Every structure is written in structure tokens, then in C-alpha cells.
Amino acid sequence: MILTTTKGYQGKKFVGGNSSLSGKIFDVSSRDAIHQYADTIKAIADYARQAYTHGGDIRFMIENLEDYNFIRPENPEDEDNRFEMEYWKKQLDIYWERRGVYADNKTKLYSLIWGQSTKTTQSKLETHAEFSHCKSSYDSLKLLKIIRELKAWEGH
């Protein structure tokens, strides 16, 4: 007998699309959905911190369910001072680069979250009023909020 493996499954059990997350999944139909959600959030936050460039920014977003607040460098006090201007420009470049990486990471995170969601969870997400916009913009923050909302609703 030959056993075939389907991506995201170990035998008949759904373990998610990312093997690094050790079976941490979103399953709103599980009796243990509340604890499972917390464990999965922690695992995804840890994974993002390690695997993504500037992963701490995304980890903050996952753990706090709010966007990371990037602080734009203040304009230099003396715009005639060449050193101050060059330093400011460099800091501004870093600021914009980091915001761009953050946006890319949010898109990657959307796919990761979706891949860690059971078919039942995905079906329930697709019926949510805000899902269409969430999907079209790959809004991972909104996706996490919807999952949290579904988990809370299913837990009652």
C-alpha cells in the first residue's frame, strides 16, 4: 500500500500548509478553538519574527492586532548643515524601506494564515461581510480579526 501525502495533511489530519508551524492551525469548528487560536497566533508570531525581514514589526501586528506604528524621522533643525541633512535623508530612506518591507510581509502573512486555516474555517471566512475586501487587498490584519471574531462567535 502506498500512502500519498496531500499538502497540509498528515494522513487525514489537517496540519496546515507550513510545516514549521508544527500543526498549529485555525479551526473555528474545534471545541478547543479558543486555545487553538491563541497557540496558533503565538506560533505564527514566532515564525514571522524569525523568517521575515524586520519580523518584529509583523510580530507586533499579530500579537496586538494593530498595525506597527512607524515613526517618521523629524526634519533636521539646521537644513544648512550638510551632515544633518545627509543623516536625515539616510534615516528617511530606512523609514520608507522598512514600511515597504512591512507591506510585503503583511501580504506574505495573509497567505500563511490562509494556509493554516481548515477548509471549514476558510468557508466561514468567505461568508463574512468584510472578507471580499480583505481578500482583494491581502489584508492579513483584517483576516486575523475576522478569525478572532469567528472563533469568539463559535465558542458561545
Q: How would you describe this protein?
A:
By secondary structure, the protein is mainly α. Helix content is 59%, strand content 3%. Strands 1-2 form a two-stranded antiparallel sheet. α1 runs antiparallel to α2 (55-64) and α3 packs across α6 (140-154).
List the helices and strands and how they pair.
Elements: E1 9-10, E2 13-14, H1 33-51, H2 55-64, H3 82-115, H4 119-126, H5 131-136, H6 140-154
Antiparallel strand pairs: 1-2
> How many angstroms separate the termini?
43 Å
Q: How many strand elements?
A: 2
Strand-residue proportion: under 5%
Computed CA radius of gyration, to the nearest angstrom: 20 Å
Quick structural summary:
The chain is an all-alpha fold.
Keywords:
disordered N terminus; mainly alpha; 156 residues; elongated; two-stranded antiparallel sheet
